[in-house]
Amino acid sequence: MTRHFLRDDDITPAEQRQILDLAVQLKRDRFQAKPLAGPQTVAVIFDKSSTRTRVSFAVGIADLGGVPLIISTASSQLGGKETASDTARVLERQVAAIVWRTYAQAGLEEMAAGTRVPVVNALSDDFHPCQLLADFLTIREHRGELAGLTVAFLGDGRSNMAQSYLLAGATAGMHVRVASPAQYSPDASVVADAERRALETGGSVAVLADPAEAAAGADVIVTDTWVSMGKEDEKAARVKTFGDYQVDAAMMARAKVDALFLHCLPADRGYEVTAEVIDGPQSVIWDEAENRLHAQKALLVWLFEQNEQTAPARKAGF
Ligand code: CP
Ligand code: NVA
């Protein structure tokens, strides 16, 4: 069975640790691993805009000795013109992995079911698991162990970032609090999956309405745009609803005195976060953005190791 990375709980707690340990090594010695020497190609497909994901996958695949093939959906046969599973069967004969930023999680599942090469979720409406690997590498660099830390996500609880924090945080043994207006609460099944993981790891999960309660005593404060890609038509209503969830200096002051501030970027400055916080001494957003590179390289190396027996394009012939 091919291992994919479509959501944060596709990996076990031990595997998450292994990938983060490898990311630390690859950050120290950037050109040490060359699993894509050949060079082999990785397809990186975008249905939505991107700066960080595009750059970090392109640079990372090159660092690993390979060639990134960046495909924009609009100029391909994807996007309703050809099914994800037919696309997957074409790609797997030629590429070593498929990285895809898309809308529905179901599309990624269809792509993964149709191929023997690893499929990586580069952001869907539901999850952003690559970002969480980078966030956790960053938190480890600044705080050491992840297990036992309390992280508070304030804002859109139904967003990919909030839901990934629930799953990845529970996997890491963290205490994850998500504070959002009731109509933007995380999906109940994601919360249930995170709760199950937390039972295994000693972490915990709390879905709250009050941002101040979530932030109280936290080790890490996280937010993200109130208007995720695909929700632009709802901007006016969202800005009104999320006003109380803004991370400003007063909100940061509720957390631990040395609490970290994270944001996956891009940020709508003045909305979900004020300039004094995002540019302030507790913010680690630039480390976080850089760590996309190291974390995703570790993920790819790990996936290639897991899938050595099943990936057709990594062998000499078919
Ligand atoms: N954080 C993140 O995924 O950024 P991009 O949308 O620029 O890729
Ligand atoms: N939640 C945001 C993340 C962007 C990287 C979005 O989906 O637009």
Strand content: 5-15%
Mean pLDDT figure: 96
Largest sheet entry: 5 strands, parallel
Rough outline: globular
Number of helical elements: 12
Bound molecules: phosphoric acid mono(formamide)ester, norvaline
In words, what does this structure look like?
The chain has 318 residues and is of the alpha/beta class. It has 12 helices and 9 strands. The protein has a 5-stranded parallel sheet with strand order 7-6-5-8-9. A 4-stranded parallel sheet has the order 2-1-3-4, with helices on both faces. Helix 4 links the parallel strand 3 and strand 4 (119-121). The longest helix is centred in the C-terminal third of the chain and has 22 residues, at 285-306. The radius of gyration is 19 Å and the shape is globular. The mean pLDDT is 96. The structure holds phosphoric acid mono(formamide)ester and norvaline (NVA).
How do you describe this structure in short?
The protein has 318 residues and is α/β, with parallel strands linked by helices.
Q: Key terms for this structure?
A:
single chain; 318 residues; alpha/beta; five-stranded parallel β-sheet; four-stranded parallel β-sheet; globular; binds phosphoric acid mono(formamide)ester
Summarize the topology.
Elements: H1 13-28, E1 41-46, H2 52-63, E2 67-72, H3 84-91, E3 97-101, H4 105-113, E4 119-121, H5 129-143, E5 150-154, H6 160-171, E6 175-179, H7 188-201, E7 204-208, H8 211-215, E8 220-223, H9 235-242, H10 249-254, E9 260-263, H11 275-278, H12 285-306
Parallel strand pairs: 1-2, 1-3, 3-4, 5-6, 5-8, 6-7, 8-9
The structure holds phosphoric acid mono(formamide)ester and norvaline.
